[in-house]
Structure formats: structure tokens, C-alpha cells
Specification:
The structure is a single chain. The chain has a single domain (9-90), classed as GIY-YIG endonuclease, CATH 3.40.1440.10. Helix content is 39%, strand content 23%. It has four helices and three strands, in the order ββααβαα. It has helices at residues 30-38, 47-50, 65-76, 80-90, and strands spanning 9-15, 22-27, 55-62. A hairpin with a 6-residue loop joins strand 1 and strand 2 (22-27). The longest helix has 12 residues, at 65-76. The mean pLDDT is 92.
């Protein structure tokens, strides 16, 4: 049995300055992942660099990777309106 708090996983949503693009991801180190999103390698062709998704607007914390991945897939399967409702409940501004 895993001890609560031993493992930390995050599902998060990033957007660009104009809030026209939403990117959903999962990580075990949110601070480090945000650093890499905000400091992409030169000529990087990854989605977040291409669309300048540098602003975190939503996240959820999990202790088990399986649950985090399942939640990431649920969020990715939602339409834009449902994602915006989820974000607004968490981060009204």
C-alpha cells in the first residue's frame, strides 16, 4: 500500500495569452513541467511552444498515476464549453 503523499501527480490545463488554446497535460512535478513549458528549447515544435501556452489556469492533484491519467483523458474528451466550465469553477478570473 502506498503512503498518502509519497507520490504526487498533477493534471493541468495551460492556455495562451489570448486564451484561445487549451492544453491538458499530466506530470509528477508541476513546477518543473511549467518551467519547461515556459522555457522551450529553441526551434521546439511541441504544441505548447508553437501555440505559446505558458499560463496555467487549472490543475488537480492525485496520489496515483493511474487516476491522474484517467482524469487527463476525461478532460481531453470534453468539449471546449465543458472545459471552460471546469476552469471557471476552479479559477473564476
Amino acid at each position: 500500500m502506498k503512503t498518502k503523499g509519497t507520490h504526487n501527480y498533477y493534471v493541468y490545463i495551460l492556455t495562451n495569452k489570448a486564451k484561445t488554446v487549451l492544453y491538458t497535460g499530466v506530470t509528477n512535478n508541476l513546477k518543473e513541467r511549467l518551467h519547461y513549458h515556459n522555457n522551450p528549447l529553441p526551434f521546439s515544435k511541441v504544441f505548447t511552444a508553437k501555440y505559446k501556452c505558458f499560463y496555467i489556469i487549472y490543475y488537480e492533484h492525485f496520489f496515483e498515476i493511474e487516476r491522474a491519467i484517467k482524469r487527463e483523458k476525461q478532460i481531453k474528451g470534453k468539449n471546449r464549453t465543458k472545459k471552460e466550465a471546469l476552469i471557471s469553477g476552479f479559477n473564476p478570473t
